[in-house]
Amino acid sequence: MEDRIHDHELDTSEGIVRALLASQLPAWADATMARLDSSGTTNALWRLTGADGSRAVARLPRMESGAAGIETESALLPALAATDLGRRFRLPELVHVGRPQDAYPLPWLVSTWLDGEDLWTLRDAPAARSHELADDLAAIVASIGSLQGLAAPDRAPGSRGGPLRELLEQLRRWLEDPRWRAADLVDVAAIGRLADEAAEVADGPTPRRFVHGDLIPGNLLVSDGRPTAIIDWGGAGHGDPAQDLAPAWSILDHDLRRRFRDAVGADDATWLRARTIELEHALGGVLYYRPRGHALGDVMARTLDRILDDSI
Hints:
Elements: H1 14-24, E1 32-35, E2 43-49, E3 55-61, H2 67-81, H3 84-88, E4 94-98, E5 108-112, E6 117-118, H4 131-145, H5 164-176, H6 182-185, H7 188-198, E7 209-211, E8 220-223, E9 226-230, E10 237-239, H8 247-250, H9 254-264, H10 268-289, H11 295-309
Antiparallel strand pairs: 1-2, 2-3, 3-5, 4-5, 6-8, 7-10, 8-9
């Protein structure tokens, strides 16, 4: 199978997608199809272009663990569209929620196509270094954090946005498990020092709010230099809102990071939790995806460099 990222992936090739469409969404069965390169790793993405020029995107989980994200996203998107966030920013709209069948045993979905370049594509453009971007990202984070009453899973211990003590244990496993060869790819001592600093807030009280959960550059689309669309809601849930401060390192440079922090009003404990959550995210991304040659490894390597160069 082309474009394999993980071991033991399901077949998400064009033939499988066409079979699913023919069976469940025949209006798109004859669409022109193009597999999309992206920094996402949970789903295989196929752009569908109809004879009339209309476009959509099919999302198929690569592994069984991705099925929960399809279920979360298919439940959330209609609800999000009715919120202030959905009125201010473009969000994908559901076209079809696919059922498992013999050729492909997991749920899948088709959503509307959103035009725009993502912030990873534009990482070296002037727009990526503008004060307006920091302000826009702070507004997005505040808007997401204000959402209430949405059906989404709670962050479990050991997951990003869950209790910090368990996340630090996961971070240590990334560093210490010999199969990841951490010393060959990252500064283990420096990361260990940051983990030690985080221990002082690991057991402190944390609020619980709705979070997107993956505000990395590839999930924010930009038009004319300003964020206009937010995609990939499969990892959304209820947990520590510090998780959604990830753009401070995944997107912004040092000067804009300070502006972003001021705009979101993060105190020292919140900022330290946010840095730690993104530290585990970046570390895992580098160790897992860099050896596999996937773009997310580069995204996470830049994020990790910024965290190590930074201080609260």
